[in-house]
Amino acid sequence: MGSRGVYAAPLMGGGTIDLPMVPLDQDLGIALLMVNDEDFERVDRIVAGLCDLAWPLRPEATLGMPEQGIWLVHAVARKLGLARSFVVRKSPKRWEGDSISVRFQSITKRSEQSLYVPKSWAALLSGKRVIIVDDVISSGATVKAMLDAVALLSGWAAETIEVTGIVVAFTEGTYWRETLGERAKLVHSLGHLPLFRPSAYEAMAGT
């Protein structure tokens, strides 16, 4: 998956971040944010922006997803003054006991995967206001799986676990709105990425 140039992604509040444009297949290309491979200065800019989005939501806990979201959710939780963050799993961990699982298919992996949330988190998150922190929301499938998992986990908690927001560096395309439906209003982002046609790397209309 080679790079085909650079897209200057506009950020809320001004400025841009240069992202390599890469093909996913012959019909679809994306501007790729790889948080785990970015320099600290750029990641710090993203974290600061995510915290600006998160403060008004008054979160008491942050949830993140592997792999690219791990760094962001930890950094945001620390900057918000929280004691820890929670990262869901993509495989069950025997030492955590029973887990809730939800299946999904992401736009980048193109294969079915599962999210696992330990049932033991129900007691830790019971009655809390929770935000989901991630890098990019595109198809919305992964975030929907997270929301569904939290809803199931809430059934094991003494009090409802409330997701008050989904805070991401970028929205990408428009498919995520259809996937999330009414829950799309929970999404807050620093910027937006269109989808591209790999042949000329022109932004697709309406994305």
What does this entry look like structurally?
The structure is a single chain. This protein has one domain (37-191): Rossmann fold (3-Layer(aba) Sandwich). The protein is globular and about 55 Å long. The chain is built from five helices and twelve strands. The longest helix has 15 residues, at 40-54. The protein has 207 residues and is of the alpha/beta class. The two termini are 22 Å apart. A five-stranded parallel β-sheet has the order 5-4-8-9-10, sandwiched between helices. A three-stranded antiparallel β-sheet has the order 1-2-3, with no helix packed on it. Helix 1 crosses helix 2 (69-79).
Question: Keyphrases for this structure?
Answer:
207 residues, alpha/beta, Rossmann fold, three-stranded antiparallel sheet
Largest sheet: 5 strands, parallel
The number of helices is 5
- Report Rg: 17 Å
Number of domains: 1
For the record, give the distance between the C-alpha atoms at the N and C termini, rounded to a whole number: 22 Å
Overall geometric form: globular
Mean pLDDT reading: 91
CATH topology: Rossmann fold
> Which runs of at least 5 residues are low in confidence (pLDDT < 50)?
none
Helical percent range?
10-25%
Beta-strand percent range? 25-35%
How many strand elements?
12
The second-level CATH architecture is 3-Layer(aba) Sandwich
Give the SSE string: EEEHEHEEEHEHEHEEE
In spatial order, strands of the major sheet run 5-4-8-9-10
CATH C-level class is Alpha Beta
Counting helices, strands and paired strands, the structural category is alpha/beta
